[in-house]
Task: structure prediction
Amino acid sequence: MKNPNTHTELVAKLHRINQLESVIGLVSWDEQVNLPEGSAERRADQMVLLAELHHRESTDVALESLLDSLESEGGAELSFDEKVVVREARRDFDRVAKLPAEFVARKAALDSQAYHAWEIAREKSDYAEYAPYLRRQLDMAREEAGYHGHTESAAYDFHIDTHDPGMSAAAIEPLFAELRAGLVPLVREIVNSPIKADPSPLIGLSVEGQRTFLKEVTERIGFDYSRGRIDVSAHPFCSGDAADTRMTTRFVESAPLEALFSSIHETGHGLYEQGQPVEHLGTGLGTAVGMAIHESQSRLWENQVARGRPFWRFFEPRFREIFGLGPDRISSDQLFLAANEVKLHPIRVESDEVTYNLHIILRFELEKRLFDGTLEVSDLPDAWNALSLELLGLTPKNDAEGVLQDVHWSGGAFGYFPSYCLGNMIAAQLWNTIKVELPDLEREFEKGDFSRILSWLREKIHHQGQRYDTMALVRRVTGDAITPAPLLRYLRERYLPLYQARPGSMPK
Result:
């Protein structure tokens, strides 16, 4: 017979571990936002200590005993939600318990050291200075997979599954192949169009004005600043949880809309986190299912919502008011085209939604080759540049524009990049479903009302926690397996009319 105290004790331990994880997250956030230049070594020592404490708590024999007890009592005695808590707690426990404490400390130290090495190398555009750290991260990634019983040939799948449970390179490859086949000619058609967006009238918009506008936008779409904040970092990100959500953005004068859209993107992540039930934080009922679903939330808000006409019909007057932009300087059609500019760009985070997925396919192909041994770390810049030319039709002018542009590998986050592209596919599928289930939604956007779509996402995605894995949740909500077809259709329907229309007569 089930002992109710056993499950209560398990949840209490999971909450304790989650509190420690939140501290680690805050210290990591501070490292990327506030840390003085000369304090990196001190922070590395702090991260090692926190990692050791987290490992000790997460591998506590009392926790294992509780899991053993609940699993041995039989599934019939547990409710569906209790089974979810136990299942995910076991998965998390095994992930950590199989790692030696020495490995965990060594990995935490490397993560901090490699992050700062990446910062310096990117600033100097000197890949050779960073390469030894990347090589060590790859070695540790293989070592970690080995502790979990994965052969070296399966190490990459282990890391993909870490970010998106149930996914593998074999499952992703046909999806990306179909997407690539449709995207490459679409990109060529759009970039070769004589119609070009001209964002130059927006260059020089004050940073203070940008801060004001993006704060108003993100608050209007639903971000709760009473339990969250936004700051500036070298690489925009979102961290934290429902009780304390941290976002960052960056301001680029030559790309005046970047801060807005990157902030909306991170707000999508933040809304997902804030939608998790606070009382279930640390358990499978209060944790995001995986990074592909997480990314679907950020991309849906950034692209399907914020790059659409209804969104701009509401926000354009305020945008003009803040920056003193009259129609003589930039018309409504020109502003909308600037918000939907498509052009070849070497930087992933500054790329438009049409070309963005080609950046992800590039990283996926390179990661596979790094893990299967057909690509050496020393040869990565050349391989990057060659694949960039093949997929995007451009070659980065230096390593900072190419292989050094992303922070992810410095922290050993291999298998993470595919989540971005999967998230775009899922976002398009969700958008199709939303338009059917919430008719006339975009009329509400024109009035600045985003509450109904947020409520829908709360119910269908955010509140589900980890009850279902990525594939199962997508099928449950949309009725279909993950597929690139809706994304390709959405991109064609939104962008081809813009770049085929006569100037001055863009479709409404």
